[in-house]
Design a protein that fits this description.
This protein is an alpha+beta fold. The chain is built from four helices and six strands. The protein has helices spanning 6-29, 42-46, 99-112, 167-180; strands at residues 78-80, 93-94, 116-121, 125-131, 138-146, 151-158. Strands 1, 2, 3, 4, 5 and 6 form a six-stranded antiparallel beta sheet that branches. The protein is globular, with a radius of gyration of 17 Å.
């Protein structure tokens, strides 16, 4: 029998627990399929769900450098419009209005999303945290309004875990759909 060192076993167990927690939290509680399941009381949601320690630590690499958002890590739990690979790549959000109007509409849409909190905003950059309802997982979403290209560059990444079961991609596509519903782009 091969003995695995304790840290490897612990990492494997934590990865499985995170994957199951993301599935339960994101699929059942965020899409309205949990009608027969108990809901999380508001004080627990505000505190980060049942397990606030799953929120992770806010990254220090957020923001833009010469119009570029941070690159995605190797794990598949991140999407970015500035990434060229199939796993992480997602299209930027085009706009036809002024950059200021595009930013204001983007901000308004984000404020309508559940458990979204805008942390930082400048004239062309917005950073928001999205917290899952049950486990308190936090995803970091960044938006950079690029007036030269008339697109909003996007990046959304989970702080912890390996897989997000497509939640970050789904979030960006939801934001895109809501903006398109406002006649955001032709």
């Amino acid at each position: 029998m091969v003995k695995m060192p304790f840290p490897r076993i612990f990492t494997a167990i934590v990865t499985v627990v995170f994957s199951v927690a993301i599935a339960i939290s994101s699929v059942f509680f965020d899409t309205g399929l949990a009608l027969a399941l108990p809901t999380v009381p508001p004080p627990l949601v505000a505190a980060g769900g049942f397990f606030p320690f799953f929120s992770g630590i806010r990254p220090t690499t957020l923001g833009t450098q010469d119009g570029n958002l941070a690159a995605c890590p190797d794990s598949p739990n991140c999407v970015s419009s500035q990434s060229q690979d199939k796993t992480h790549g997602i299209a930027p959000i085009p706009y036809t209005a002024s950059a200021e109007e595009a930013f204001n509409q983007l901000k308004a849409v984000i404020q309508t999303l559940p458990r979204a909190e805008i942390i930082t905003e400048t004239t062309n950059y917005l950073y928001a945290e999205f917290t899952s309802s049950l486990m308190g997982f936090v995803d970091d979403a960044e938006f950079y309004v690029d007036p030269e290209a008339q697109v909003i560059q996007v990046r959304s990444a989970s702080r912890i875990g390996q897989s997000d079961l497509g939640i970050n991609r789904k979030r960006i596509e939801t934001i895109r759909e809501k903006l398109n519903g406002l006649n955001f782009a032709d």
